[in-house]
Amino acid sequence: MAKISKANITISDIAESAGVSKATVSRVLNSPELVDEKTREKIEKVIKENHYSPSATARNLSKQISSTIGVIVPEISNTFFGELFEGIEEITNKNNLSLLYCSNDDNKEKDFKALDMMRTQRVRGLIYIPAVNYKELGLLKQVQQRLDGLAGPVICVDRSIGLRCDEIYFNDRKAMYEAVKALAVDGHKRIAIINGSKQNVLAEERHNGYIDGLKESGIEVDESIIFRGDYKYSSAYSMTKQMIKLENQPTAVITCNNSISKGFLKAIYETGKSIPDAYMHIGLDKIEMLNLLGIPYNHIERDSYELGKRAVEILINRIAFPETKLQQVVLQAELELQTCRLVKM
Amino acid sequence: MAKISKANITISDIAESAGVSKATVSRVLNSPELVDEKTREKIEKVIKENHYSPSATARNLSKQISSTIGVIVPEISNTFFGELFEGIEEITNKNNLSLLYCSNDDNKEKDFKALDMMRTQRVRGLIYIPAVNYKELGLLKQVQQRLDGLAGPVICVDRSIGLRCDEIYFNDRKAMYEAVKALAVDGHKRIAIINGSKQNVLAEERHNGYIDGLKESGIEVDESIIFRGDYKYSSAYSMTKQMIKLENQPTAVITCNNSISKGFLKAIYETGKSIPDAYMHIGLDKIEMLNLLGIPYNHIERDSYELGKRAVEILINRIAFPETKLQQVVLQAELELQTCRLVKM
DNA sequence: TGGACATATGAAAGCGGTTTCATTGAAGAA
DNA sequence: TTCTTCAATGAAACCGCTTTCATATGTCCA
Lengths: 345, 345
Hints:
With 345 residues, chain A is an alpha/beta fold. Chain A is 46% helix and 15% strand.
């Protein structure tokens, strides 16, 4: 029972040093109640003395399952996803699961590569935010095939593109509908929208909510104030500049994620205009700093930390009970209007 | 060569279906030049038809190395770390390495747990931001032991606590020194600092830089305007409130990370004061939105995306050449004073 | 006293790959 | 023609762990 002088200590070393078989050591590790107390204590002592820690690789291979959960996310530096990720981590950590991370940059090729990696890594389950609207592109089958090839179940988060798996997302359409209605009630008749591309499901959802709201309020759809870019700061910035030059100005603007909102605000402030004097504005997702500084910021609030936590819980449940019916969980996005002043008419 | 009807296709299935041995299939996967073209094509066809993807688990076990890099980070929702993480991901992705993520919440217990997990997972290398200043706590040996027990090398990022491994961090002390000097040159004699706790190395570095700057400028150190909290928003907020009540007010304030800066700003704005009228202010790390909105924000700029990229490069290099001398890379933090107005004296 | 049963342990197979070593056949050299 | 060399492949061991199955020992009861 002397210290083992070796770089990589294995279960065999421990067994030998303790004078027992590998099987017994393995039992101490996995179901200690099966082994005699004296034997167990002896083995535990050897394990401790040598700082032995069993290899997850070997264990996973042997058990035919891994202890890691995969996550595929667009971009982690957007705080919406950053907080989502923290929510995920809280729960996986509690359950002693590791997290394998991959970003897809809203990009089909990277997304496929990420899925392949998750396959190769045989993750126990996958938390998946699809990069693009594969349904629209006619690639749904290809993606589904990849999901089916995974070792574990998948939960599709933040957007629904028609994949055969559990889903959890916010009710963006309804929230947009309500945003438009709130603006209409305040007297706005020309409500612009700056949105992501048609390839993005969420953009479509939001677009539809916008249309719903207009119709309900008896406002005619005007294509000239419907802007579609790519959910990125820079495209929103240039579209806003474009909008500012329009002859027939909107009186209110809705921006469809926080990067777009930032690009929009940048363009506005650069031009010397201000919110809400130039335009009434409602953004999607909060922008923490604005709130902190007391700058009015009407927005649709979505708690992504909660989204992350719930997603993992559903996934873990699915792993435990693979055969139960697939579920779609819809979280409510809340319209937070802090300073929705009336417009002069 | 018919389609294999089976859930988990293994290398043996492929071998059988192609009428060759496992060894040959393995060669096609790893060193195709060793196998005859015809055989190779046949095998590749079978692989493709069956969507076979080799198990990383099995491969890792067999090769005795894994293909994943571990990352231990305080909190991913702080954009400093978010961008750091994206930098990391860019390089690992290029090198076909997976990323195993773990947060430590600036918390010793979680940090140790994370290290143990990295050990168990046998990561190929580790990117490590230590939770606390273990040197100060007398726990350096324990941590070093954990690092030594890992399967691969470690790079310690963003702070140096005296661990035996490669390191990369910003020259915070110098940047702080320069910040203080710039304020002194502008006529400030009472410069407050809101900082993290003494347990945090970075906080100490920054503190020292602050003291250096005061001394160099012939300003006496005044403990009553040196605030120490925990690098969190809320503690900064309450310390600022406390500061505002002080009889002998400072004329300038330095805040030592972006969470502290936010807490500080919140308290300031809430009190109806404004920057830079109430206090001249220099923060550490940028706050993106302020810049966007044209709100003046003097700060020390640290490019964490770059930090992440460099860290992985060093780590990969270390994996390739384990015996070369350990390196310490110091990146320069840049003082960005956008509107450093003179104070009335 | 002997048989049934429970408890504690070990031997060995298996997880899905890689790698070493041996074997085979063909090409080139003598 | 025979010997050498090399390219292509397969058999089998191995990586570190889990798990099944068999065995040994002890306990209980008839």
